[in-house]
Amino acid sequence: AMGGARMDPNLSPPDSTAQQDSLFSMTDVFLISLITGLFTYWFFFRKKKEEVPDLPKMQTVVAPVRDSSFIEKMKKTGRNIVVFYGSQTGTAEEFANRLSKDAHRYGLRGMAADPEEYDLSDLSRLSEIDKSLAVFCMATYGEGDPTDNAQDFYDWLQEADTDLSGLRFAVFGLGNKTYEHFNAMGKYVDKRLEELGAQRIFELGLGDDDGNLEEDFITWREQFWPAVCEHFGVEATGEESSIRQYELVVHTDVNMNKVYTGEMGRLKSYENQKPPFDAKNPFLAKVTENRKLNEGGERHLMHLELDISNSKIRYESGDHVAVYPANDSSLVNQIGEILGTDLDTVMSLNNLDEESNKKHPFPCPTSYRTALTYYLDITNPPRTNVLYELAQYATDTGEQERLRKMASSAAEGKALYLSWVVEARRNILAILQDMPSLRPPVDHLCELLPRLQARYYSIASSSKVHPNSIHICAVTVEYETKTGRLNKGVATNWLKNKVPDQNGSSSLVPMYVRKSQFRLPFKPSTPVIMIGPGTGVAPFIGFIQERAWLKQQGKEVGETVLYYGCRREREDYVYREELARFQKEGVLTQLNVAFSRDQAEKVYVQHLLKKNKEHVWKLVNEGMAHIYVCGDARNMARDVQNTFYEIVSEFGNMSQPQAVDYVKKLMTKGRYSLDVWS
């Protein structure tokens, strides 16, 4: 445009002289004009390019204060302790909040922080703040992985060469001993911060969710604070006091279009669905099939199909589907009745700390009914901090003392909490029923209860065969507690009642897909050994479907071996027809099924592996087979791994330590994969 504007005046003079002077032909005029125009265009364009760099220089004189600087936030709000959390199910976040609240007892001020929201390279600047300390509550997810919100922090730690010599820190890890990589994330953060020069002021805490995670945390915490006091030369200012974090606002005149009704993030996101879909924006999938898989027995095993058409959701065999369940309405109603609450009251709980990134404990404004149905965990035994905070509302001194004792760090109190709450599986409703004088305000109860979490299921289908559908295989959880109450699993019983193809919420499931490392080999010709008893067979249904599809495409598909197990052949043998068909078609080259209770002695998958040990070794050693284990982590996965140690030791002529090392190397190379739960 600039060049064009400059060319016009140059066209006129040559044009007029062309008529007077025969020396100038029309071609000459055109060429001169073109050269002049191009020169003019180049001149201005080049000048413009030279001038551009001057502008940013003015902007870079003063570096802008980043929103993601937790240091600036701490300075602004007078905090000196920051507690970062790597949390997948909310527990690490809960522990971080408890530690940050503790700080005021020692004349310190704390804040809990999500590492995903901040630039962690600022850790090197924490020493600018007096009596500063960084605490990390880090959960380990899957096979030694960081939680989703700590992934960037983990990546940064691996690459960082920052000098953290001024940083004081402490780490509490949340893990589960039944898993191979127990507390890997907590251990790594603790070790890596020290390597970068940071000063550990208290030893690494290792919480075990297979034991009593709450007790592990309390034991660590009661020794952690004295170490902090000693380091900074401060003293406890008094007893642990109950300080409300949120204030209640009741909305009497409110536009119902502004009220949350169960959405996880954006208001009205369930009415107006927009991709991409994730944890904060789940897709409402229709249930198109919900059938019982088992023929008998007291359990209910089910197969569900979720329609993901038009969602743009993509998945691979081995991925997990996360679903957001709802609590049983009868439990919600009983809580409302026992507390004498109008559950349809619309309210907001607003953070008293205006600087906090977390404005509400759950989406607000909403009703108590919605909060107790979709946002809060009302079925798990409450943690000790909840009991401590609620104790003040018990009018009977005996009940008040009992609650305070269970929340204390005394051995007697811990034992009482373990037996009366944990082992008796008392949820909040059971506690209210068994303590008649305990009637807390419903808003304080809603502030204290943890968030209801999404439930993960291994996808039981292949996207090559079912691109618009995700299949789930699950077993309903139902058991009687020591107090004679019937406790039901939240998600499985909610899924069980989903009616296919009905209009309304009765057939809708809020869901999203979580990527996994549980993947078929890159080469279809690589043999696979799949071990999945019970609902652990789920991902292998997807794997076999995919191998069948690859075979149909004319690909050379390697041996596909399945080890499956259930209680009784005529009772809970799931996917029997599908597996028989795959075997008949030659896709499933070997099907080994262990029926644990069909004979006098128990037979499990590991027994069948031992029976076929020569074939197993041949596939692993010569065929470079990939091994997959899915299901129970506590016993099955460990027993299967020990069986592989034995097979490797026997046929590979190795000692026990060498065999263990061999299997560990298979894991490192991605040839031995686990998808297990406890």
Overview of the molecule:
- The protein is an alpha/beta fold and 678 residues long.
- It has four domains: 163 residues, Flavodoxin domain (Rossmann fold, 3-Layer(aba) Sandwich); 116 residues, Elongation Factor Tu (Ef-tu), domain 3 (Beta Barrel); 127 residues, NADPH-cytochrome p450 Reductase, Chain A, domain 3 (Up-down Bundle); 149 residues, Rossmann fold (3-Layer(aba) Sandwich), CATH 3.40.50.80.
- Helices cover 38% and strands 18% of the residues.
- The protein contains 23 helices and 23 strands.
- The strands form five sheets. Strands 1, 2, 3, 4, 5, 6 and 7 form a seven-stranded mixed beta sheet that branches. A six-stranded antiparallel beta sheet has the order 14-11-18-9-10-15, covered by helices on one side. A five-stranded parallel beta sheet has the order 21-20-19-22-23, with helices on both faces.
- α7 links the parallel β5 and β6.
- α12 crosses α13.
- The longest helix is centred in the first third of the chain and has 26 residues.
- It is globular.
- The N and C termini lie far apart (68 Å).
- InterPro entries: CysJ-like_FAD-binding, FAD-bd_FR_type, Flavdoxin-like, Flavodoxin/NO_synth, Flavoprot_Pyr_Nucl_cyt_Rdtase, Flavoprotein-like_sf, FNR_nucleotide-bd, NADPH_Cyt_P450_Rdtase_alpha.
- Keywords: Endoplasmic reticulum, FAD, Flavoprotein, FMN, Membrane, NADP, Oxidoreductase, Transmembrane, Transmembrane helix.
- Its cofactor is FAD; FMN.
- One of its GO terms (biological process) is response to hormone.
- It comes from Oxyruncus cristatus.
